[in-house]
Structures are given as C-alpha cells and as structure tokens.
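Researcher: Checking consistency across runs. Here is Thioredoxin domain-containing protein again:
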Amino acid sequence: MGGVKDVQSKEELDAALAGSSPASASSVVVVHFWASWCEASKQMDQVFSHLSTDFPHALFLRVEAEEQPEISEAYAVSAVPYFVFCKDGKTVDTLEGANPSTLSNKVAKIAGSADKAKSAAPASLGMAAGPAVLEMVKELARGNGSSQSKSTSPGMTNPLKNRLQQLVDSHPVFLFMRGTPEEPKCGSSRKVVHILKEVGVEFGSFDILTDDEVREGMKKFSGWPTFPQLYCKGKLLGGCDIAVAMHESGELKDVFGEHGVPVVSKDGNGLESGKVSSSSGGITDSSGGLSTALRSRIESLINSSPVVVFMKGKPDEPKCGFSRKVVDILRQEKVSFGSFDILSDVEIRQGLKVFSNWSSYPQLYIKGELIGGSDIVLEMQKSGELRRVLTEKGILPRETLEDQLKALISSSPIMLFMKGTPDAPRCGFSSKVVDALRKAGVSFGSFDILTNEEVRQGLKTYSNWPTFPQLYYKGELIGGCDIVLELYSNGELKSTLSD
C-alpha cells in the first residue's frame, strides 16, 4: 500500500475504517489531523509520510482538521497535530502534539504486528523519519516551548493594552482572525467571515498572523485563548463555535440589533435596529435594563445551586453540542450541579444575556459568578484551572499532596519522574533512563520535577527514594537509573513493564 491519502469526507473515513473502501485493505489505520497554517503539523506530516513507507501494510490517512469539522468533532480534536490509531475499525490509541518518537513507537506497536512476515520491522525513530526531519521537529518543539513561555508571562504593557483597546473600538463589529476577509487562513476564520457577510453587517478585521504582539496580547486582553475572536461594541462575543451557534439560532442578529449595529438585508435595504419592547421578557428598554422582578428571578436561579449551568435542554437530554460539552466536563470533574433549560423560558433566555453581558449559551456559574461558555470551560478544564476554581470555591475538597502524587503516578501506566522532559533531559541519569525506555519500545508518561518543588520533595518521602529519576509501573516504584539500566541490559525491562 504505502503513501498518505487525504480524506475528503466523514463517509470516506468511515468506509476506510470499515474496510469497504477500495483504498483500505488493512485492518490498521492511522489518521493525522493537521492544519495548513500550523508549522508543527507540516513537520510531523513529513514524519508521517516516512512512516507510511516504512509500514506499507497499514493505511495512513490525513484530515485537514478545520476543513472537516464533522470528522474533527467526532474524534474530539481540539489541537493539531493530532493522531488517531485504529485497528479492526476501532480507535485503540491517540496522540496529541509534535512528538516524533512517540508517533513512531505507537505506529510500530499497532502496525508492526499486522503482518510480521511482510511488514517493515518496527522502525526506530531515525529509521522511520530520518535525522534531518527529526532534528527539524525537535528544533520546532523547542521553539514552540520558548514562545509559549513568553506568551504566558504575566502582565501587559500599557502601550500594548491601549493599542488593543483602540483596535477593538475601531469598528462596532470587529474580528481578530487568521488572514483577511478576502483570504482567510483558517477554516474557523472563514466561517465567521461568511456568517458576518450573510447577516449583512459591516465589520473591521485584523490579521493576527501579521503581528505576534497583538496575537499573544489579545489572548490576555480578552481572556480567550483561541482565534478568531468576534467583538461587538467593544464586548467579546466569542469564537467560531459561539458565532455559528448564535447565527443558527438567530441570536447574533438580535445582539447586533440590541447594540444599535445596522444590519443590511439581502436585498440591500438597511434594517432598523429596533428597540426591545417592554413586552419582551421583562426587558424594559434598549439600554439593557431589567425589571426588578426579572432581575430577582435570575439572581434566584443563579444562586439556586453552588454550580448552575444555563443550557439548551436538560443534562440528560442536551439540545445542542455546546451544552452537552459543558455537562460532560462537569460530570468528568464529578461536580454536582443545577441546571435551567433556557429553551423553556424566553424571558429568562433573553434577560440573562443582559444580566450577564454574555450573549450566548450555555453559561456556567459557580457560587453566583459567571465562568463562561463551552469554549472557556473546556480550556479551563484542560489547563487545570477549572478544578482549581472549584476547589477554591469549596465545591471540591482540597487535594492533599499525597492525593496529588497518587494522581500524577497513576496518570500513565508507566510514569517517569525526571529532571527535564524526554526530548530535553536536564541530567545524565534522566537521559539514560529515557534512552533505555525508548530503545525497549516502551511508551511512558513523564513529569519534570524541576517545575514543582513541592512534588519534588514530597515524592522523596512518598516513595522513600531520595533521588531522581524515579520510574513507576501501575503505581508501583520500579527504581532509579541503575535499576532501569540493569533491567534493560538483562533484557528484562520491557517484560517488567508489561506484566
């Protein structure tokens, strides 16, 4: 077989996984979700291409994540590069990020046994990708790491803050996007531009790819980590998903009307941005005032439970994907919560937008404070911020150091506590253990003890082992550098970590 095939539809991918596609004669399928604007995707695609040659009896497929949103949503893709490993039509593993060695090992693990007589031998990373490509990817990863640390540095200079505020205020409707309205550089930006044109609203835009200072600054300024970002009269509405949901429900046009933004009908005639009448759910005037009775009712609902989500539908029967996402997250965090179906009450639905100054749903509240919508809740969960807020508010019990250590140790079946990262070890002993594990073909998680002094000191006491690195298998300490190297030299390392 060999080579990489681009997937053009979900039906095509489903057929390949089911084995009914002409291209699919293999039970092993590896899918690469990528984006044309992402340098890490492009570099990992070269590794992916080499692997497709090295393992000709597996099927290697490529999906442009933002151009195929139905496929990306089905596989919960939230960042690229992202890889899905399938066997006999079922997903057996995934990988997020630019990690060529892990990609190579995972491919070898799933495809190496497909046909032992004919398939290529499980490739080492060098054999699979070539030293030039690997060095390029590692350099890219180092670059990404340094830029990320810069972007998360606290504070923002006043000149930058003033510049961002001027951009936001320069037009009643303003879009921070990748590319320009005439030439969008990503699918999400293209969607929002299309929506704004379909609604018939004039808008300004800024290409965040042309200015890293604005790009990183806007993440802090808005408290929104991704692009595009859509603003109306200086207020953030949200990103692509929220813009799409608001447009489909008719809420986007309502928001523009409520803020006095002129909207042009498809026949070219201007539409009057009508005032909201007093009969519309207790909203008494176009300035956004609420009747005392409605405000009291909203406050009562918000405080009816420590955690409340205003959503479309009910937790067991969500009526939109965004509401379902927030419900799933809260359940994953094992949080008890109350809910209110905004589809059942137009007065609350419209009034809460004014009360919260948040124009879409779902809306999550913790102890009476608005947290945000689905994108923000998802980002907070990924970063650990959601659990921290829930703990600080007394919703979840505070985690002891021992609990934290147990969670870290069990976060991967094989877990290495080391100095540095596998791609950039900070001591010789850690480097030797990483090398042994990789040569043995073992996939493992890791934690850099140099980043957390509390974990570093606590683990010494917890394990009764005073030095690092420390290797764990299924929650049990295997040992340090000397023990790992001895197991490797005796040919026992892989079997010890797979019993």
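Researcher: Does this match what you'd expect to see?
Model: One thing to look at in this run: Confidence is low (pLDDT under 50) at residues 113-134, 140-154, 266-288.
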